[in-house]
């Protein structure tokens, strides 16, 4: 069985659906600390689960004969700066416990998301390479960098088959984002559809690497299905799809909604965005397991503006 921890989040909501479609709903157990997330999972089993409750996690894994864990629960960049020690503790203690459980119970595979947040102010900003200086200055980024080191350690020392991707900002219309610095790029579509003005918390010219959720799901499943020997990076793979600024995503939407307006009011998240790359070099992922994104900005905007007006959010998302 496949256990998804943090299934109720922005990535988890869509990845759990993809896993159920791929493996069969009866093979997937969705869990989240927010019991209300149950309303999202009428297609597979849902259990409330706090990843910090190690006994509960272990009991579930043993009882349900879990063979793969997708550990998606984390405190993201913006919220992490409001609660640094809690963010560090949740992000790190939960990963270490899952890696230890995978080692002890010899689980088949573990997936754990990293992020472009592992890069810092002195990382090369254009076409950031797979290997480079990484001095993250957010708690979230520090936890992702440390987590990558632990993933590689458990693979090299105990042969735990843990795999990871450094996601760019993820954008989808089926779930709201969970407290990150790239959340603006999801909210802007909701404001456009609602005919409301949009105020960006990042400056107009702030370029960030971004990816449409269908591409993020495809990258995750492609990586997890790759033969073990093809997965040569055991820290976390750079993956890219596009890069854009708030004014560029606004322009792509205004082409469909001429009356849509934007203004810019940078807040504390501007400094976080400024510490991250503008664009990502994902040559290594393309070489090792054939990564290839499908969506650029125009295609993403077209797809979201087509589907979002008809999409019914679960109560927990509003
Ligand atoms: C965040 N959405 O903003 C996440 C992601 C690259 C950004 O890690 O924290």
From TrEMBL:
Residue ranges of every copy of the NAD-dependent epimerase/dehydratase domain listed in the record: 2-240
UniProt-listed GO biological process terms: L-threonine catabolic process
Pfam families registered for this protein in UniProt: Epimerase
One Gene Ontology term of the molecular function aspect: L-threonine 3-dehydrogenase activity
Domain of life, source organism: Bacteria
SUPFAM superfamilies: NAD(P)-binding Rossmann-fold domains (SSF51735)
Family under the similarity heading: Belongs to the NAD(P)-dependent epimerase/dehydratase family.
Protein name: Epimerase/dehydratase
Organism: Nitritalea halalkaliphila LW7
């Amino acid at each position: 069985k496949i256990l998804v921890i943090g299934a109720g989040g922005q990535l988890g909501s869509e990845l759990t659906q993809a896993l159920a479609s791929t493996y069969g709903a009866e093979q997937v157990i969705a869990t989240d600390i927010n019991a209300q997330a149950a309303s999202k999972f009428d297609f597979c089993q849902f259990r409330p689960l706090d990843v910090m409750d190690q006994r509960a996690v272990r009991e579930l894994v043993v009882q349900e004969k879990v063979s793969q864990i997708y550990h998606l629960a984390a405190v993201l960049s913006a919220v992490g700066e409001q609660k640094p020690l809690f963010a560090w503790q949740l992000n790190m203690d939960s990963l270490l416990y899952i890696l230890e459980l995978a080692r002890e119970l010899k689980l088949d595979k573990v997936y754990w998301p990293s992020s472009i947040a592992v890069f810092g102010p002195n990382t090369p900003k254009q076409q950031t390479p797979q290997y480079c200086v990484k001095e993250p200055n957010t708690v979230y980024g520090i936890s992702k960098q440390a987590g990558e080191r632990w993933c590689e350690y458990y693979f090299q020392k105990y042969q735990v088959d843990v795999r990871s991707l450094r996601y760019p900002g993820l954008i989808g219309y089926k779930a709201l984002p969970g407290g990150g610095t790239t959340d603006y790029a999801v909210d802007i579509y909701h404001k456009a559809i609602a005919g409301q003005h949009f105020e960006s918390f990042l400056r107009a010219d702030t370029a960030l690497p971004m990816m449409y959720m269908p591409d993020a799901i495809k990258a995750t499943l492609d990586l997890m299905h790759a033969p073990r020997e093809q997965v040569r990076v055991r820290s976390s793979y750079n993956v890219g799809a596009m890069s854009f600024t708030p004014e560029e995503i606004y322009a792509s939407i205004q082409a469909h909604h001429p009356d849509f307006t934007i203004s810019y009011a940078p807040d504390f998240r501007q400094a976080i965005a400024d510490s991250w790359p503008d664009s990502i070099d994902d040559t290594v992922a393309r070489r090792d397991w054939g990564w290839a994104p499908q969506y650029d900005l125009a295609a993403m905007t077209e797809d979201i503006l087509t589907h979002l007006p008809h999409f019914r959010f679960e109560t927990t998302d509003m």
